[in-house]
């Protein structure tokens, strides 16, 4: 569900919180569109 990559490994620590929420939103939206 997390594409195998924690957000904090991809972006600067200062942006970790925002990035985490963006990743979560993207994954939830993806699931909402295609539950499979």
Describe the biggest sheet?
none
Number of helices: 1
How helical, in percent, are the residues? 40-55%
**Extended strand count:** 0
Q: How do the helices and strands follow one another from N- to C-terminus?
A: H
Structural class: mainly alpha
Describe the global form. Answer: rod-shaped
Intertermini distance: 11 Å
Low-confidence stretches: none
What number is the mean pLDDT? 70
Beta content:
under 5%
Radius of gyration in whole Å, from Cα? Answer: 11 Å
Task: List the defining traits of the structure above.
single chain, 36 residues, mainly alpha, rod-shaped
Characterise the protein shown here.
- 50% of the residues lie in helices and 0% in strands.
- The protein has 36 residues and is an all-alpha fold.
- The longest helix has 18 residues, at 16-33.
